[in-house]
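Milestone 3.1: sequence recovery, worked example.
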């Protein structure tokens, strides 16, 4: 594995698990499962998740992300970076997509 960092920047939400609130968010539940599976397969993988509600300071520390949000708006979120480079915008990548990117 050449890559060691995945950073996920998400819009405002109360939690990143998808099970808070009255309606579970299946997309978030599946993505949380994907991240757990990747972490099990690649123990050295560092994963950072920040949402605009609880992790705004993390957004502010990443000038590239702040610039993208300023230019494209919050509709760009979720924004997924691998080793600091944009991997996907506006959606949560599937397990196979992330695994392939980590192994390339």
């Amino acid at each position: 594995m050449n890559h060691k960092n995945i950073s996920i920047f998400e819009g405002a939400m109360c939690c990143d698990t998808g099970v808070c609130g009255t309606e579970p968010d299946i997309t978030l539940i599946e993505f949380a499962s994907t991240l757990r599976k990747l972490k099990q397969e690649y123990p050295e993988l560092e994963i950072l998740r920040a949402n605009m509600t609880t992790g705004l300071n993390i957004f502010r520390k990443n000038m590239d992300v702040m610039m993208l949000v300023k230019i494209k708006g919050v509709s760009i979120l979720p924004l997924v970076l691998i080793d600091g480079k944009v991997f996907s915008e506006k959606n949560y990548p599937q397990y196979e997509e992330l695994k392939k990117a980590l192994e390339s």
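The longest strand covers residues 5-10. Residues 67 and 73 are 9 Å apart (CA to CA).
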